[in-house]
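Dear colleague,

Following up on Tuesday's group meeting, I ran the structure prediction for the three-component complex that the binding team flagged. I've pasted the input sequences exactly as they went in, so you can double-check that nothing got truncated or mislabelled along the way. The C-alpha cells for the whole assembly follow below. Feel free to forward this to whoever is handling the docking comparison.

Inputs:
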Amino acid sequence: MSIKLKVKVSDIVRNIFLFIVFAVTIFPLVWMVINSFKNRSEIFIGPIWPEKFILDNYRFVIENLNIGRSFINTVIVTAFSIFLILIVSVMAGYAFAKIKFPGRDVIFLIFIASLTIPPQVTLIPLFLMLKEISLLDSLTGLIASYTGLGVAFSIFLMRAFFVTIPDALRESAIIDGASEFVAFWKVILPLARPGIATVAIFQFVSIWNEFMYAATFILSPEKRTLQPAIRSLVGRYSTDWGALCAGMVIAVIPILITFIILQKQFIKGLTAGAVKG
Amino acid sequence: MLRKIGGIGVVLILSGLLLMATASAQEAVTITMWTWFDDFQAAFPKIVDRWNAEHPEIRVEQQIFSLDEYLQKLQAAVAGESEPDILAPHVMVRSLGEGGVTIDFNEWLDEEFLNSFAPSTIRQFTWDGHLYSLPWTAQTFGIFYNKDIFEEMGLNIPETWDELIEISHTIREIDGSIQPLPFGNRDKWLGCDFFLPLITQVTDDPTLLIELDRRTDSEREVSWNSEPVIEALELVKKLVEGEVFAPGINGIANEQALTIFYMGKGAMFYSGSWLPVTIDREAPQGFNWDVFETPAYAPGKRHWTGNESGANLAVSARSKHIEEALEFLRFMYSPEVYSPAMVEARGMPATMEALQGLEDPTIKKMASWLEDGAPHILYGEGSWDAVANAVQGLMGGQLTPEEAAAQIENDVQRVRGR
Amino acid sequence: MRKAHSLEKSQHIFGYLMIIPALLFFVIFVVYPSLDAVGLSLCFWHGYGERVFVGLQNYINLFHDPVFWLAFKNNIIFVIATTILQTLIPMVLAVMLVKNSFLNTFFRVSYFVPNVISFIITGSLWAMIFEPNFGLLNTILQNLGLETWKQLWLADPKWAFPCIIFVSLWQSMGFYLVIFYAGLQGIPEEVYEAASVDGADSLRKFLFITVPLLRPVTTVVIIINVIGGFKVFDLIWAMTTGGPNHATEVMATYLYTLAFGSIGTGTPHMGYAAAIGIMILIFSVLASVVQLWVREADTLEY
C-alpha cells in the first residue's frame, strides 16, 4: 500500500515540474501567435488576450510581402541543401567512423575546427568568392554555400551515430564477401535512420531560419527567401509587430510539421535499432 | 530510385535557374536603386512606374530594405564592387565619397540645381568642397506631446529644460502611472541624437561638434573631454535624475517608448520629423497630439535642435550609367514628382521650392526650425560608437559626466590611432 | 600477406572516395573564404579600395584594446554558464522523458519548439517581456505582490547577461534534449534490469549507469556548447546589441560593430574585425582541443 503511494507522489511531482517547464517554454510562442491576431498598437501595452481577433496582419503579409514567392524560394533552397548535405555527410561520417585511412583524424579535426568560425567573418570573403564564380544572386549559390557550411556539423553528428553501431556488423559483412560499399549501403545505412533524421531536422531549422547570408547573397527581389522578406517588416523607426508575428507564424509552421513527422520516423528507427541490439 | 528522381530534379531546377539568369541579362539600360526609406514604401514604386512608362530606354528598378539588412548588403556589395547605381550611403557618406566609391556631385550637377536645396542640407554633405550625397528629406527634432494630457493637467509648453523638469514633476504628482517622456535607448541611436545637439545649445557654436568629429582644423584644439561636452552631459544627467524619463531607459526600444506615448501612458516624446507619418500609421484613432520646439539651455537662448538629414542619396562612381542615374535623380527632385511624394510620406522636403510650398502644418512648423539647426550626425572614425556607448552608460547611471566625456575621447583616439 | 595489404589499400581508397564530395564543398565554401579572412586580418581594409598589408598590427591593436578583453571576459562567463546549464538540464530532462509514452513525446516535441523560432523573434519577444515598465515579467511580479523582485533586467548591467543566458537556455534546451534522447536509446534495457536486480534505485542508476554510458554524447554536447558560446551573436544582438555600454558585449558583437556598425558606421574596419574572428577561432579550437584531449584520456566500453 505505502509503496504504491510513494510512486504516485513522485510521479505527480515529476509531472508538475515537467509541466512548468512546458509552460515557460511554450508561453512566449503562444504569445507570438496571439500577437499575430492583434492590432499592432495593442501588442506591447494592453491585455494579453485581445478583445477581438483580426486577420488583417495575415492579409497584409500575404498581399504585401510576395510571400508566396519567398516561400517557394526557401523551400527550394532548404530542400536541395538538405539533400546534398545528407548525401555528402552520411558518406563522410561513415568513413570517419568506420574506415581507416591515413590522415583521417587530421582531416576530421579540420572539419571540427571550422565549426568555430563565426559566420560574420566569412560573410564578405564568401560574397566575393561567389561573385568570382558567378554564383552571386542565385539560389544555386545559396544552396552550395549552405551545403558547404552545413557539412562540418552534420559529419560530426553522423560520425557520432555511426560510432555507436558495432564494428562487428561491417566486419562480418566483409568476411562474407561484400565490398566496402555494399557493407555500407546494405548493412549499416538502414541502421542510421535516427542519425539521418536528426541531421535533417537540425539542418532544416538552421537553413530555414538563416538570415544573414540569404539577405546578403541574394540581390534580386524575385529570388528573395523567407527570412529577409519577413524581416523587411522591421522598420527603421517602428515595427509592425502584428504583421511580423504573423509572418513568423507562417514561417514556423513548415518546420513544426516537418519536425513532428520526422519525430515519428525517429522513434521508429530508434526502437528498431534497440531491438536489434 | 528516390535518388534518381532527386538527381533529375536538381538538373531541372538548375537549368531553370540558368534560363532565368540569362533571360534577365538581355535588357536595355537598367538603373538600380537601393534605399532603406521605409516611409516611402508607397511613394517610390509610383515614381519608378511613372519614370519607366515615360522612359522605356532607361529602366529603373528600386528596392527598399529594412535598415539592418540594408547596411550589411550595401557593404558586401561595395566590397564586391557591385553596388547599385543609386544608393543611400547613410553614415558612410564621407568615407565612400573620399574612397572614390561615390561621385562628387559638384562635378556632375550644375549650380542652379544644387542651389535649389536648403543650404544647410547641402552643407551637411560637403567636405573640402566635395558634395558626396544629396539630401532626400530634411529633418528637425522636436518634442511631441499629448494635447489631452497637457490640457487635463494644465501644463504649459516648457521653454527651457528646467521648465521641462518642473512639468515632469507635476505630471508625476498628478498621475504616477504616466511617464513624462518615454525614451527608448536600447538601440543607442536616440540617445546620441538627443545629446549631441545639446553641445551646441551650451556653446551656441555649431561648428564645435563638426570639428570634434572631423578634427581637420589644425589651428583649433578640441577634445571630447572638455567643458562644453561635460556641461551637456551634466544636463542629460539632470534630466535623468529629474525623473523625466522612465527608469531602465537602456532596456526600452524606441518603438516601445513610442507605443507608450501614443497609448496615452506618456505625456511627451522626443523624436524627429519622421514621426508624424509613423503616428498616422500606428496610433489609435482620436490620439490628439502636436509638437513643440526643443527647449533651450537657459531662458532667452536659442532653441538649437538637431537638423541633419539621415536620408540621403549618392551615385556610384563605378556605375556604367552615371548620366542616366543623374537623369533619374533630376526627375525625382522635379517639383511635380518630389512635392507629391513628400506630401504622401509626410516627409520634410529638402528643396527650397517644396519647403516654401509646405501646407502640412506640423511639418511646416518643424521646418521653420531648420535655421536653429545643430549638427548631430557623426561621420568620423569611431565617433558615433564612442558617443553612443558613453551616453548609454551615462543614462543608465554607470558613468558620471566626466567619466563619459573621458571615455568618448579615449575611444575615439584609440580607434583613430589604429 | 599481399592480400591483406591490398585489402588495406582498397579500404584507404574507399575512405577517400567517401569523403571527397564533402571535402569539395568544404574546401570551396568554407576553407577558401576562411583563408581569405585570415589574409584580411593581416591588412587594413575599409571594405572598398585597396587592402593594405600590415602584418600583425591588427592583432597588436587587439591586444591593447580594453573593449576586446571585456568582450572576451563576457564570452568566458557565457561559455561556462551556458555549457553547465545547457548540458545538465537537457540530460536530466532526457532521462525523465526517455520512456515512450504519449505524454513524454508531447513534452519532448514542445521543448524543441523554441529552437525552431528564429533569433530575431526570440530576442525581440524576450526583450519585450523583460521591458522594465510594461513588460510581462515585471507586470507578473507586480501582480503577485513581489514588487521588490522587480528589476530593470536588460537595462541593468548586473542582470542583462543572466537574462540573456536564460533565454539561450530556453531556446536550446530542446535541441540538446533531442541529442541526449538519441544517445539514451543506445543503452540497452538489460543493463538497467541487471542493476535493478542488484537493488539499485533510480538515482543510483542515473549516476552510475546512465551518466557514464552517456559520456560520448555528453562530450559532443559540451563541445557544441563551448563552440557556440564563443561565437554567440544573433541572440545577444537581437536583445541588446552588446549594450548598455558594452555590458553584454561579446567578441562576435564587437566584430560585427567594427565591420557593419550597430547603427551603421562611418568607417568599417574589416581587417580588424577579421582579426577578432580569427581570435574567436583560436580560443574555441584551444578549448575544444583540451576537451578532446581529456576525453581521449579515458574512453569507455561497456
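The two ends of chain A are 37 Å apart (CA to CA).

Cheers,
M.
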